[in-house]
Structure formats: C-alpha cells, structure tokens
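Lab notebook, page 48
Experiment: co-folding of the full assembly
Goal: obtain a model of how the components sit together before planning crosslinking
Operator: M.T.
Materials (sequences as entered):
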Amino acid sequence: MSDMQAYQRYFISTSQPKNYRTRSLVLDRPLAEAQPGQFVMIWLPDVGEKPFSIANADPLTAAIAAVGPFSEALCALEPGQPLWVRGPLGQGFELKGKKHLLVGGGYGAAPLYFLAKQARARGEEVCVCLGARNQAELLLAEDFREIGCRVEAATEDGSAGQRGLVLEAVRAALVDFPAQTLYACGPKPMLLALAAFCKDNRLAGQFSWEAMMRCGIGLCGSCEIDEPTCDAVGLPHGWLTCKDGPVSFYQPA
Amino acid sequence: MSDMQAYQRYFISTSQPKNYRTRSLVLDRPLAEAQPGQFVMIWLPDVGEKPFSIANADPLTAAIAAVGPFSEALCALEPGQPLWVRGPLGQGFELKGKKHLLVGGGYGAAPLYFLAKQARARGEEVCVCLGARNQAELLLAEDFREIGCRVEAATEDGSAGQRGLVLEAVRAALVDFPAQTLYACGPKPMLLALAAFCKDNRLAGQFSWEAMMRCGIGLCGSCEIDEPTCDAVGLPHGWLTCKDGPVSFYQPA
Amino acid sequence: MNKVSVDLTCELAGVRMHNPLVLASGVLGTSAALLERVGACGAGAVTSKSCGPEERAGHPNPIAVEWAGGVINAVGLTNPGLEAEIPTLIDARERLHAQGIPLIASIFAPTVEDFGRMAAGVSAAEPDLIEVNISCPNVGDEFGTPFSGSVESAAAVTRMVRAKTKLPIAIKLAPNVPNIARIALAAQEEGADAITAINTVPGMLIDPYAGRPVLSNKVGGVSGWSIKPIALRCVAEISRTVSIPVIGLGGVSNGLDAVEMIMAGATAVGVGSAVWQRGVDVFAVIAEEMYEFMAGEGYPDLASMRGIAIR
Amino acid sequence: MNKVSVDLTCELAGVRMHNPLVLASGVLGTSAALLERVGACGAGAVTSKSCGPEERAGHPNPIAVEWAGGVINAVGLTNPGLEAEIPTLIDARERLHAQGIPLIASIFAPTVEDFGRMAAGVSAAEPDLIEVNISCPNVGDEFGTPFSGSVESAAAVTRMVRAKTKLPIAIKLAPNVPNIARIALAAQEEGADAITAINTVPGMLIDPYAGRPVLSNKVGGVSGWSIKPIALRCVAEISRTVSIPVIGLGGVSNGLDAVEMIMAGATAVGVGSAVWQRGVDVFAVIAEEMYEFMAGEGYPDLASMRGIAIR
Ligand SMILES: Cc1cc2nc3c(=O)[nH]c(=O)nc-3n(C[C@H](O)[C@H](O)[C@H](O)COP(=O)(O)OP(=O)(O)OC[C@H]3O[C@@H](n4cnc5c(N)ncnc54)[C@H](O)[C@@H]3O)c2cc1C
Ligand SMILES: Cc1cc2nc3c(=O)[nH]c(=O)nc-3n(C[C@H](O)[C@H](O)[C@H](O)COP(=O)(O)OP(=O)(O)OC[C@H]3O[C@@H](n4cnc5c(N)ncnc54)[C@H](O)[C@@H]3O)c2cc1C
Ligand SMILES: Cc1cc2nc3c(=O)[nH]c(=O)nc-3n(C[C@H](O)[C@H](O)[C@H](O)COP(=O)(O)O)c2cc1C
Ligand SMILES: Cc1cc2nc3c(=O)[nH]c(=O)nc-3n(C[C@H](O)[C@H](O)[C@H](O)COP(=O)(O)O)c2cc1C
Ligand code: FES
Ligand code: FES
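Observation: model returned without errors.
Model output:
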C-alpha cells in the first residue's frame, strides 16, 4: 500500500549536534537504493519542503545546518518526532579509481561522508579536505577520521588546519596523495574554483551543485544552472540540478 | 508498454476444423500463466466480445463452435488475421489425486483437453467421457487419444460410443477406472446431473459453469448463478461465474 | 504510539452503519443474493445497481475492461425497470436487515418527472436511503449533459425527488464539472440529506492496433485507484461547502484510501472497483486496515479524523 | 506486414513541425536555454511556461510530487511577468528557429482585458503560435471557476485575444466540464485557430499519516499516464465537433499513447509529465516509437491515422 504514498514517514532516532548550528538527524530506518550525492526532499506538513543531501542511507541520515526557518524546524525535532521524505532523487557521485580526494565546504561534507563510507567499504583510500570560515563551522572532521580517512582542514581565520581557502588544502594534499578523482560539494564559488583547478590540472572531477529546488523531479525548471555557470564549467545549457545533477562530471579530454 | 493495453492482439496461426461446426483456433503465441478451466474474453472490434475457454495455453488455442454471429465471425478468421484477448480470467480446475475422470459435453471438451495435457505431463492417468447428440458433434476425441487418454463416448443416437447420456459413460468408466476426482464442462443439465452423481457417490467434483458474461472481472453481476442452481449444487448464493468460477469445487464431507 | 480501541461505526442521514464502507452502485448490486453476499463480506451498507423507469439491456460487450489505472466501463445502465426492481429491493432489504445492514436504493431517470416517479416507486420498497444518480452520462439534457452538470438541473431533480419521498435522499454527483461544491450546495438547498461523490470520470480507451475505442459505447467511466486524487479533491470541496454528510468514493482500494476520504470530510466511504482488484471480501479487509491505522495513530473514532485534512 | 516509409511531419494552424510532439506548457519552458534543449531533444515544437501580466513567485513547496498514477502539481503559475518574458521569448524563438523548431508562447491572465494585453504583448516577440491558457484553476470568475469552465467566459477570452493579435491562437481547455466540445466550439466560433486539450485534472493527495494534503496549495492538477483515458475522451469529443486542429495531451508517455491521441483526432500531441518519467530525451524516443508502430502497421503518415477511432 505504501507505494501509493508520495512521501514516506520517518521518525527521528537521534539528533546529534555536529557543530554550533548543524545537527545530524539519524532516522529510524534505511532509504532503499540511495547513492552518495543523491538527495531527498524533506517535508514538514504546514512548514515546507526542502532538499537535503543523504549523509547516510542505512539508517537514513541528514546533516542539517540551521540557517533559516525550515532548517531550524528540522533541527528542533526531537527523537520520536516524524518527518516526511521523498527520494532518493537526482544523479549521485560515482567512485572512479582507487584514490579519492573529497572536498567539502559547509554542509557539503554531508554527502561526502556517505561517499567516503562507500569508498572505505571497498578498501580504497580517501583524503578529505574540509573548508570553513573557522573551527566552529567545520563539519564531520571527526566522523571522517573515524572511518579511516585522512582529513585536511582549511579555515579562513586559521582556527583549524591551514589558514586560507580549501583549494590550498587540496593543492597541499595532492602533493603526496595522487588522487584519480576529485569529488566536491559546497558553495558555488568553491565549486567554480575547483572546476577550474581540475581543468588546469587535468584531474577528473565530480561536483555537487545547489540550486533553488521546487519539484525536485525535472519538471518545473526552477533548478536550472544559469548559462554563464554552465559555460564556465563545461555543462550543457539548461542543465537541471535536480535531475541531471546535483552531481556533474568532468573528465579531462 | 503493452501492459497499458486492455487487450493483447494475437494473430491466427491455423484454424483447424474439429467437427462440422467447430474450429480450433491456434494463435501465434502463448498466454502467460493460464490454467486449464480459465477463460479469455475475445474481442473483435466492431463485432463484439465473448468468453471462451482456454483449450491450450502455449500457443493460446480456443475451440469455437459456430452457433451465432460472434462465434461465426471467429470461425471465419483466416491465418494471419488478428483478434484481441484479455485474460486469463477466472478460477480454473485444480488437479487432485492421480486418476482423473474428465467429462465433456459439446465444446466443454476444450478446457478439458488443456487439463488432460497437464495431467498427462505429470504422468497421471486420464479417462475422458465425451457426450454429444451424434458422432458429428463429438469434439476432440482423437486429440485426447493422441496424448494418451482413454476416451469413452456417448451419443444420444448411438452413432459413436454407447447410446445415451454421458452419465452412462461415466458410470461405465468408473467400474474399472477408480478416479479420485471428476472434472466436468458442458451444458447446465449435464453439470447438474453430474453434481448429483458426485454427491450420491461421494466423489470429488469440479464443474465448469457457463453464464452470460459482460465484464468478466466480477463487477457487473450479470454472470451470477441463480439461487435454485446454487442450492442444487451446494454453491453459496451470489456465486459469480467469472470470478468465483467458472469452476466450482465439490468435496464430499 | 499506544494502541487504542477503535470505533468504526457511523451515522449517515439517520442511517446507522457498523462501519463506513458502502458498496458503490452498479457493482454487484444487481440481485438480492449479491447484495446480501456483499453485506456478509463486511460492508457497512450496500447500494443497489441504479434502476430506471423501464428495463434496459445496456450496451453490447465490451462494457468493462481493466487497464493499468483501474477499470473503465460503459455498462449502459442495464436494469430490470422499476416494476421488477421493487420486489428485488424488498427481498434485499429483508435479508440485509437480518444482518443489521442498511440498503441504499439507487435510481436514475431520463427526465425530472421520471425521477419523481422513480423516487415514489422505490419508496414502496422502504430502502434506508435513496441514492439519486444524476451523474450518468447519456441521459440528461438535450446536449447529453447529465443532470449533475449544472446547478439548475441538479436542483430541479433534487426538488422533484424531495417532493416525492419522505425517505432520506443522497444526490450522486459527477466529477467533470468546474465547481462541484456549488452543485452540492444546490442539492442541499433543495432538501438533499446527503451527497455521494464521485461517479466515474468520463474517459476513453483506444486500442492502437485496432484503431478503435475499446468499449462498444466508445466513451465510458474511469474508476479505480487512479481516480482517487480527483475524488478526494471533490469530496474536500463539497465537505467545505455543505453541512450534510458526504459518501466519498472513487478509487478507494485499501484502508489508507478510506482514511484519506474521511480526512477529506466524508462521513461514509464507497467502494466499487476494488471489488475487482481485491475480491468481494475487500470490505472486511479495508475495515481491518482502517482499524489498524486508527489504532496505530491514536484515532479513537471516525469523528476524530473527519475533515482534518481540509481544516 | 510490410515496412513502409513513414512521414511524421504535421502542420498546425499554419505552423509546420517535423514531428507532432509538442512540449507542454509549464514543463521546462521557463528559460530560452531549456526550450532550446527540449528542441534539441527531438520535440516538434515547444511551449513556454504560461506567463501572466505580473511576476508571480508561485506557491511554496511542496508544489509537485510524483504518485503512483503520475504527478500532481500546484506550482502556482510562477512566472516573471510580461515585461521580463518578452526578451526570453525572443531569445528562445531565435535559438529554436535556428533548429527549425516552432515556439508556442503560453499566456494566462486574471481578467478578460488582461488576456488582451498579454496577447498583444507577447505578439511583439513573434512566437509561432500563442496558447491561451484559460484552464488554470485559481484564476477566473468570482467563484474560482477558470475561464474554460463556461461557454460564455471561454468565448469572451477568445474574442478578446483574437482582437489583439494576428498570430495564430490555440485555446487550452480544462477537462472538468460537463461538455468540453461545446466550449471548444465556442472558441472556434470566436476565431481560435486550434484547441489544446487537456490541462491537468484538478485533484488532491492526502498523506494519511500527516492528516494533511500533500501540496501546500492543497488542491493541484493531476497529470501523467493515469489521465490518458480522460484526455483521449476530451480530444475525441472536441475533434468530432470542431474543424480546427487539436493539440491533444494528457498522459502521453510513449509512442502508442501518441498514436492513440492522433487516432482520437489530434493533429499534434503534447508531452509534459513524461519528461519526468523518461527524461528530456523522451521526445526523440516517442517519435521513434511512433515511427516503429506506423511502419509495422502500415500507416504512411499521421493523416492516415488521424481520427480513425472516432469514425
Ligand atoms: C541538492 C541540495 C542539497 C542540500 N543539502 C543540504 C544538506 O545536506 N544540509 C543542509 O543543511 N542544507 C542542504 N541544502 C540546503 C537546504 O535545502 C536549504 O536551502 C537550507 O536548509 C536553508 O533553508 P531554510 O528554509 O532553513 O532557510 P532559508 O530561509 O532558505 O535561508 C536562510 C538564509 O540562509 C542562507 N542559506 C541557505 N542555505 C545555507 C547554507 N547551507 N549555509 C549558509 N547559508 C545558507 C540563505 O541564502 C538565506 O539567506 C541543500 C540544497 C540542495 C539544493
Ligand atoms: C466461461 C465460458 C466459456 C466458454 N467457452 C466456449 C468455448 O470454449 N467454445 C465456444 O464455442 N463457446 C464457448 N462459450 C460460449 C461463447 O461465449 C458464446 O456464447 C458462443 O460462442 C455463442 O456466441 P454467438 O454470439 O456466436 O451466438 P449467440 O447469438 O450468442 O447464440 C446463438 C444461439 O446459439 C446458442 N448457443 C450459444 N452457445 C452455444 C453452444 N456452445 N452450443 C450450442 N448452442 C449454443 C444460443 O443459446 C443461441 O440460441 C463459453 C462461454 C462461457 C461463459
Ligand atoms: C461496472 C460499474 C458499473 C457502475 N454502475 C453504476 C450505476 O449503475 N450507478 C451509479 O451511480 N454508479 C455506477 N458506477 C459508479 C460507481 O458507483 C462509483 O461511483 C465509481 O465506480 C467510483 O468508485 P470506485 O473507484 O470505487 O469504483 C459503476 C461503476 C462500475 C465500475
Ligand atoms: C509541473 C507542471 C506545470 C504545469 N504548468 C502549466 C502552465 O503553466 N500552463 C499550462 O497551460 N499548463 C501547465 N501544466 C499542464 C501541462 O501543460 C499539461 O496540460 C498537463 O500536464 C497534461 O499533460 P501530461 O500528462 O503530459 O503532463 C503543467 C503541468 C505540470 C506537470
Ligand atoms: S526542481 Fe523542478 S526541475 Fe529541478
Ligand atoms: S461477468 Fe460481470 S460479474 Fe461476472
């Protein structure tokens, strides 16, 4: 009967603080067939609905930064309370090669954690570069270490890892971590810089983009990436974040 | 895509005369999951739609007696011409025991042939009693013999087999063929007589009924067996030939 | 979530039912035996097949087929005519009342006057409620629009039927109107005791290989699970507008569907095509599924769920 | 059956298309880049998202979800307003014409007068055809009935639009009326060059566990494969009644569906929700499926199939 329902109801198992404003919501059961980089739409009746990356599929987990009304409502949920999920949606990451460089900005660390787990389960090497404004903003660094990833942090104020942008950490990591593919999720300026870096360095890249999502299923057009951005990173015009993405693929010629 | 269609189109492979007015229509491919005793609705666009027993499932075959406009239209079809089928529909026979007595009147032989093939494939013994007005009306006797069934015929005029009703042939057969179950398909008076016979002789019986079918899927009510008939053979009131049947089951207490 | 004890009973226009599930008109309601059987299979009430003034054979086959979204039918209002119907209704009522199950008698007619005649006629059989089917296509005004297609004609039929019977009446509406709530309101104003919504959604299936419509009548009515969202919307709009109870139906196949109908404001829930999908026993099965849902979610009775989705 | 060579071209109100498949309004028609992309994916023509006089943000999420029968949406007519739309349409037309693909500009408005203003306004962008969406719920007369809900209001909008543009116009109709052919006829009489049918079917999904409608707007429009029989019936009724061409849409997901629309009398076939189901490439895929069917069944061109199911 439940396949007749647009949404699946989940319950919060635990809600763990991950930094001063981000919580990891661990739900009561798995989401079938979810891949790292895919997302779900989370609905709170009478509140709203927004997209969130899948930070773990079994049990379904999301890392939510409380930055506005909807994310605050999610972070206020207590164990046992319900939320509604549709998905998994979109095109996720695809592990390529055996040495993986993951680059996260802000809650971009969330889908990368799921990806790192998958790579580690295959016995492959993972190095994670995390960027943030300061130490308080850093996300999931401990979680990555726990599953055997090398972690390099970069903060704008130098309060954790090296001072500067995450791109500096990437350059540094690559010196002794000859990655075959770079996987990135984070703010658009970071992705643009990394896309340029991959092109310059002939490194395969997978980038997870953000956009204003409405339908989430490739109909309404609201998540289209603008043409200048498409041109900058080599995407075809009219690229839809919810359906063609959120992950885009760059392969050096 | 084709599961969106209400009907499946088949083509006539061969149309073989079986007696002076009955043809066996062999179609171009199988009907999946069909059981002996089940039926299909055959549709000829702009002509009509009627129920027919499945005489063989692989390839789908029906034995059609040309008795009126629709059955004549079917019998006039030539190899390569199309017809439309929905089904299999209804509750078919279920082989019980290892010695099977099949009793057919008229085109009632059709579903029994399919049943006999199934029983023979299991290496079980089959005796078929066929009733008809005269030799010309006898159906499929040769076909039953070919697959290794014992065949006893009864005709009203004695032109084939013993003279009399099929019930006489049944009595005779049972003398040296100790069947565990009787399976019957044919005109209502024959079924009523056989049902009474089974009751009197404490023999398990399966009877395939006919009725005016419209929807064929248990909605319209037109194939209901009348209450006196139900009472006579021990069926619950409101018994639907298309859905509860066409096969009814009698088990001596 | 604590399991609670659940009460599935309801009352509709003075008619008490042990659960809210009503056999929809036209499905297995053609004889006393079938109506009795559906009652024994767990329905809270049963509706007879719509009957008109004269006997009708209906359309030739094909009259109903299943497709991926449910069923489409154009039976053509096969019925024995008023005179033959009355003893059947009396027989059915007696058998059903012995089980404690109410009988709803469905009527249709080609003219407003004939609706009056039908209402007076079937009243003689004393069914618990008369359902007035003003939503069958192929009868109605001179353009082929059913009476439920306009406020004026719906009101005219209701007024006439109201004048001819003292029994409670439910007016059955079609979904293919721009504003179904206005029509329901007109029926209420003319004295209807309940609204039944929805009848089938007019549709057509074409077999591309045949190049022909599948039904002999070409056009038919779509029913079954795929019309549920249309039915829920109609029931919600009607429930927000009228104060009389609504029998909500269209695509109800399981307990959750029935719950959704109640949440949209329905008092009772009709079940038709699901009989094809899940068998005649579907009534007891759906009632059990409703019970499970309500016990699990903490709804003690139907009133506690009714209309919560439209508030 | 001999394989024949198949011609999929068609002409609609003077607009030539390399195949009959039209991107439905509201699906991916929000930017020049997306319209161009759909053209490159094999559509015969593309329709822009309906635009109104003023910018509208639309409804808050959820605005569209999939369910077992397809999709339900209440986007809320998100659009940039007439002024911002014109350069987008010009840009889109130039890119599409470079591919040889016509552009249909869809408009809606809250009043008859505004429809006139919109028609005159988008005409400046010189689209190949203007589609007049009189079938969106939540705009229309004082009862919330869309303009397509009555012969009078449909005629009034058509008359106004006809007076304000020399471009060909198609009037887009809603299925939830008792007699869609009468409304189509009224549009033809007021000068419409084509009819588009159908818009989504008004519906509601309720989540029983939430006890709430799923869409923030509560009511939405059902689209996708489950509405196909409703759409086929509407297209058949309209085609039997009017002489102008029909863009048939509603639930077309594959080549057989498109063939059925043509057999019901459509000249062109709209595709909307199938983009969700089968991706943007669905246009080329459906065209190929139509080709296969027609070659296998011996139909040399669309005219040889058109309307055969309603004769
Ligand atoms: C594919 C995809 C995946 C996403 N995954 C996640 C995820 O895993 N975790 C998560 O927390 N969010 C994620 N988001 C963002 C999320 O959908 C919401 O946009 C976010 O929760 C803010 O919504 P809100 O209603 O709370 O605040 P809003 O009112 O929408 O935003 C409040 C303010 O915060 C700003 N803002 C929005 N998002 C962020 C942010 N992430 N960091 C800093 N400022 C922000 C807005 O620009 C605005 O000024 C994802 C978005 C997309 C498209
Ligand atoms: C479950 C079921 C299975 C059936 N299986 C078969 C089958 O395998 N083969 C088959 O030929 N028919 C079968 N029938 C009967 C079939 O559906 C039609 O009723 C039959 O073909 C006559 O249809 P018609 O339109 O040609 O003639 P009609 O105009 O309906 O009938 C013409 C005349 O023939 C009489 N008649 C109808 N059927 C028979 C008959 N079988 N023998 C003698 N007279 C008859 C009618 O009473 C009428 O007087 C089955 C019916 C049912 C309900
Ligand atoms: C085969 C069939 C026959 C029907 N006949 C009638 C009828 O005679 N009178 C009536 O009011 N509704 C009739 N209906 C409509 C149903 O009562 C019901 O309104 C519709 O099927 C929607 O419910 P469902 O989706 O549960 O089937 C019929 C429906 C079917 C499927
Ligand atoms: C997300 C979405 C948005 C839509 N927006 C519009 C619109 O703005 N204008 C319009 O005329 N129709 C709109 N429609 C209706 C479609 O154009 C089409 O008529 C309907 O979806 C039926 O076709 P389909 O089943 O192929 O989707 C929209 C449909 C969907 C699914
Ligand atoms: S969110 Fe609607 S197309 Fe991507
Ligand atoms: S033929 Fe309709 S119920 Fe059996």
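Interpretation: Residues A 215, 219-220; D 24-27, 49-50, 64, 71, 73, 75, 77, 106, 133, 172, 199-200, 223-224, 227, 249-252, 270-274 surround flavin mononucleotide (ligand 4) (CB under 6 Å).
Next step: discuss with group before ordering constructs.
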